[in-house]
Amino acid sequence: AGAETVKRAVQLDVASRFQESLVCYQEGIDLLLQVVKATTDEAKKHRYRQKISEFTFLSDGKYHKQIRIEENATGFGYEKLFLEYLTEIVSEVWVEDPYIRQVHQASRCLYNFLRFCEMLVKGPCKVKTIHLLTSYDEGSGRSQQMIALEEIKQSLSNYGVTLNIDFSSSIHDREIRFNNGWMIKIGRGLDYFKKPQGRFSIGFCDFDLRPCHETTVDVFHTKHTKKM
Length: 228
What we know:
Helix content is 39%, strand content 18%. The protein is an alpha/beta fold. The chain folds into two domains: 61 residues, Phosphotransferase system, lactose/cellobiose-type IIA subunit (Methane Monooxygenase Hydroxylase, Chain G, domain 1, Up-down Bundle); 160 residues, 2-Layer Sandwich (Endonuclease, Chain A), CATH 3.30.870.30. Strand 5 and strand 6 form a beta hairpin. The longest helix is centred in the N-terminal third of the chain and has 21 residues. It is globular, with a radius of gyration of 20 Å. The two termini are 18 Å apart. This is MITD1 protein.
């Protein structure tokens, strides 16, 4: 299965379908690594490792795609941006966003983070750990921020997912990383949606129907393989 997946990756590479080929390379290499671990024959292990090295070299090219979200555009829910990169081998996610807090935004950033976590829980991936790096809310909002994050943490634990939370007073960058090598940077972080017109207006629940603020999304891929 691993060899067939890598063959498919090569075909996609030749067809200049680089994004799909990188996903196939990663999945194929992961499957071959599982074979290496299960094989006791040292000669076979050596051959498999040689093949994996060849495939890793082929998949080592850097990838960058940029998506421009226009003002008031719709159809850019989290599934649209992230789902194609959440392959089955994704088990760990890092979220760096300084504004996962209350502030003056009526808890939108915290709800956005919750929606992002919901996508991970029901996605095709098998996420076990989420790392969140954010900043403390100001003044009295800090206690509400901590209560909300603790509730998200406890809720995730019911689905077998651990949420690790760290705080930084100097964090400015916004990025999301998956342990299959994909990294997504959104200019506005997770809070690129506009406030809904009302609690019962279209787009309140379905983010695909929610108008967006103008922002830029950059998608990168770097070499990321497990040690053999």
